[in-house]
Amino acid sequence: MSQPSPEVYERGRGMDAHNQVMREIRAQKEETYDPHEPTRVWLDEDNTPDGVYRSLTIILNTGGCRWARAGGCTMCGYVAESVEGGSVAHDALMDQIERCLEHERENADDPADLIKIYTSGSFLDEREVGAETRRAIAETFADRERIVVESLPDFIDREKLADFTDHGLATDVAVGLETATDRVRHDCVNKYFDFDDFVAATVEADAAGAGVKAYLLMKPPFLTEREAVEDMVESVRRCAEYCHTVSMNPCNVQRYTMVDDLYFEGGYRPPWLWSVAAVLERTADADAIVVSDPVGAGSDRGPHNCGDCDDQVQRAIKDFDLRQDPAVFDQVSCDCEATWETVLDAETSFAMPLTR
Amino acid sequence: MTEYFEVHARDGAARLGELRLRDPVTTPTLADAVVVDGGSLWGTDRDLPEGSEAELTVLPHRAFPAGTDPTVQDSFAVDYPDVDYPSAGVVTAETAADYGCDAYVLSNAQGVAGHGASFRDELIAVREAVPADTALYLAGVATPRNVATLVAAGVDLVDTKRARVKGRQGRYLTPEGEYHLDELDELPGAHPRDPPLAEFTREDCVAHNVAALEAELRTVRTRIRRGRLRDYLEGQGRHENWLTASFREFDQEYRYLEQRTPVIRDTELSAASEDTLNRVEIQRFADRVTSRYRNRFSNPLVLVPCSARKPYSDSQSHAQFHRAIGYRGHVASMTSPIGVVPQELECTYPAQHYDAVVTGDWTEGEKDFVATVLERYLERNDYPRVIAHVPGEGYRDICERVADRVDTPFEFTAVDHPTTSASLSNLDAALSGELKYSKRERQHNTIRAIADYQFGPGAGDDLFPDLRTTSRHPKLQVRDGDDTQLAAQVPQYGVLAFTLAGARHWAASPAPTKRVEIDGFVPHGSVLAPGVTDADADVRVGDEVVVEGPAAFGVGRATMHGAEMRESTRGVAVEMRHVEATEDNA
C-alpha cells in the first residue's frame, strides 16, 4: 500500500494554516504528565461482532500523536496529555499497563474479555510504542478474547498485527477516519490521509486476520448541523462496506484546540444529541455495528439538547449501541426536537450556530 | 460594481435602500424570502449557481465562524466570480474587500452580536472594506430588540432565523425583552393575530416573534426616513445592556459616524439622555464653534441661558434680555447639550433643532461638557469682559468654574432669575457706557460667522472681505459690490447657499472649498454617483459643494459623503442648485 506519512502530507496552504494555528494553540498548554501513569482507564461493556463483552479501556500515555505535534486535528486536545520530551520508555509503558491491571483487579470480579488500547495517537507507530513493548503488551493480554488498538492507517501492517493474532486474540484496529468525505477530513478536521488510505488499511488488516473499527467524528468545525448529519449518514454507509464496526462520535469541545477557540468566540456549538440519534436511526440498516459514545453529553462543551431531555436521549443511544434497535428512539421525545428541526432547516454556515 | 442595490436615504450609518430585484425590496428588511444560498464549499465543491434577477444569490462560500484564526481565514478564503445576477459574498472583517457583489454577508455575526466593542470593530471594518453602495447582511442574529442597533451600525439585511428558533424554544420576543412563555402572566406587546396566552403554542410564538421583528423593522425604517433613529436608540437600546454599550462604542468611533452624519437637516434632535452629548451633531457643533468660529464684535460677551423656544431670539426671555442689552453686548447662549451658541449661529443646525429635557438639574457630565466648550471658546475669542447673566444651579456653577480658568473677567448680573426686573436692570447697568453695534455690523458679522462655521477658520474673511447684505435675518442675502447676489442664508438650517456667481467667487477665494469632479456632462437636477470622477474626502451629506467637469460648472448640496461618491456606482451624489455649461457643444 502507499505509505502516506505526516511529513509528506504536511503541505498545501490550508493544512499549513491549520497546523500553524494548532501549534500556537497547543503551545499555550504547559502541563506535563507522569510517564508511569496511564492517561485514563475504565471498565465498560461493548458491542462486538461476537456479542456484548465486558471491556477494559486503556488510554496509554505514549508521548502522543506525532501529527498533533505538527499541529494536528482541529478538535483534538489529547496531545495535551502527552509527556514532556515526547517519548515514553518501555519500562514506563509497562508500568502504565500494570496500573491498568491493578485498576481491573480492584474494580472487577473477573478479567475483561475485551481490551481496548488507545494512545491519543497510533499504538502501531513504533516511535510511540516500540516493537518490544507492543509484543510485551500482546503477551500480557494473550489470555483475553479480543483486543482493539488505535492507529492511523499508515502504521497498520500485517506483521505488527500478527503479534496479537498469533496469540489467538480477535484483533481490531481502531482508525480515526472521522469522515468518509476527504474534503471534510482535510479542511475541517485537518487529517492528512484519504479515504482510499483507510480502505487500503482495512485490506492490510484483513490480511493479518484482523478487523477494522472506524471512528467517525460528527460535526467538525465549519459544518452546519445539517451538513454534519448528512456527512455522518454518508460516512457510516461507506464505512460499513469495509469494516464490521463504526463508532460515530459527536465532537466535544476540548481545551487547547481550534474548536475551543471557535466555541469561546461564539462560532461553534457541539452537535445536538438528536443529530446523533437521527444518524443512528437512519443508518440502522447498514451492514455494520454502528455505535456512538457521546463524551460530555448534556454539557455545553459536549453534544447536547435543551438540558431537559439529554439524559433520556443519551440512554437511548447507549441502548442502541448494545441492541442496534432503532425503535429505542421512538421512546424519546421533547419539545426541543422542533427547535433542532428548525436549526437543521435554517442554519447556514454564515449563520451559525443559530443557538447554543 | 453594484447593480442591484442602491442607497436612497441615510441617517448616520443607517441607510434606507433598495434591493433592485425583479420585485424591488426596500431595505433594511428581512432577507429570508429573497436570499438563495449557493452553498458551503467546506464539505464539497460546487458549480456556480445559475442565479436570477428575482433573488439575491449568496455565491458558494467558505464561511468563517466567529473565532476563526486569521491565518486559517487567509488560506481558505475564496474569491467570488463576477456574475451578471444579484449576488452576495460571504466575508468577515479579515476577508472583506470589493468582490464586485451587490451585498456582503458577515459570517461571524453570531460571535459579535452581543458584545458592543467587537460588534463595532467588526461592523466598521467590514463596512469600510466593501463599497458604500453594497448591502450588508447579518444572518441568524436579528431580534425585535436588537434590530434597531444592527441597522444603526450599517446593516441592511437581516432574517427571521434567530426569531424562529427562539419561538420554538418558547421564548417570546418584544422590542424591549425576551420572555419564556412559562413565566408570562399575559402577553406583552401582543400582535392582533396572537391567540390568548392560554391557547398560545410555540408555533404561535414563532409567528409572534417574526411579526414583532417585522413591526420593529417598520419602526426602524420610519425612523431613518425621519432622520431620528439615534433618538430612538437612546431610549430603546436601554432595554439590553449590549445595545447601549454598542451605541456608546460607536460614539467612541467618531470618525466612522461623523463621516456618515449630515451637517444639516430639518429634523428635531431630542436631548433626553447624557448620551446625547456624544452625538456627532453635538460634538461637531461644539468643535466648529470652538475651532472655526471667531467673534468679530468688540463688545463684552453676555452669556444668557438657552430657551425652550428656538431660535432663542423668538423666546420671551431672550426678548427681555435683548431689550436690556440693546446691541451693547455680544450674546451667546449656554445650553446643554449644545454648549455655547453665539447669536450669529442660533439658527444653525442643530442649534434651533434640538429639544432638551429640562428639569433645572444639571448632571456633572453636562456641566463638564458645557464648561469645557465655554473655556475653549474664551481661549479662542478675545472679549474685554464677560457678563454672565445666568440663573443659579448649573449655569452659574459652570461660569464660576470657567472664570477661574481664563483671564477674561466675569461679572454676574442675575439675582434669583435672569428675567426678574432686578436682574434685567443689573444687566442694563453692567452695559452702561458700552457702544451699540450697528445693524450692518451685526448682519455682516452673522454672514461671516456662518461662513467660518460652515467652511473653516477664517473663511468669513477670506470669502467676504467686502460684502453687502440685503433682506433680513434669518434670510439675509449676500451681494458683492455690483449688487450681484452671491449667497443666501437658509433659514431652516442657518447655513449659506451659493448662487452660481457665488460658487465661482467661492472657488476663486482662498477659503476652503469642497469639490466634486464629474464627467463631461451638464447635470440638471442631480449628479448620480457613476458621473462622479472624484470628490473631496471631507464632503458630508448636506455640504455645499462646487461641482465641476469638462462641460459644466455648478453648485449643489451633497447627498453622499465624499468617499461614498467615489466608491458608489448607484445613487444620487449631489442635488444641484445651479449649473451652467462651460463648453459650446455641451
From TrEMBL, chain A:
Q: Which InterPro entries match?
A: ELP3, Elp3/MiaA/NifB-like_rSAM, RaSEA, rSAM, rSAM_sf
Q: Which GO terms describe its molecular function?
A: 4 iron, 4 sulfur cluster binding; metal ion binding
Q: Where in this chain does the record put each Elp3/MiaA/NifB-like radical SAM core domain?
A: 55-282
Q: Which UniProt keywords apply?
A: 4Fe-4S, Iron, Iron-sulfur, Metal-binding, S-adenosyl-L-methionine
As cofactor, the record names:
[4Fe-4S] cluster
Can you say what this protein is called?
Archaeosine biosynthesis radical SAM protein RaSEA
UniProt source species = Haloplanus ruber
UniProtKB/TrEMBL annotation, chain B:
Q: Which InterPro entries match?
A: Archaeosine_synthase_1, ArchSynthase1/Queuine_TRR, DUF5591, PUA, PUA-like_sf, PUA_sf, TGT-like_sf, TGT_C2
Q: Keywords of this protein's UniProt record, alphabetized? A: Aminotransferase, Transferase, tRNA processing
Segments forming domain PUA: 514-581
GO molecular function terms listed in the Swiss-Prot or TrEMBL record: archaeosine synthase activity; transaminase activity
Q: Which PROSITE patterns match?
A: PUA
- EC assignment: 2.6.1.97
Organism superkingdom: Archaea
The pathway where this protein functions is: tRNA modification; archaeosine-tRNA biosynthesis
Instruction: Name the enzyme's class.
Output: transferase
One Pfam family of this chain:
TGT_C2
Keyword Transferase: yes or no? Answer: yes
What is the name of this protein?
Archaeosine synthase subunit alpha
Q: Which organism is it from?
A: Haloplanus ruber
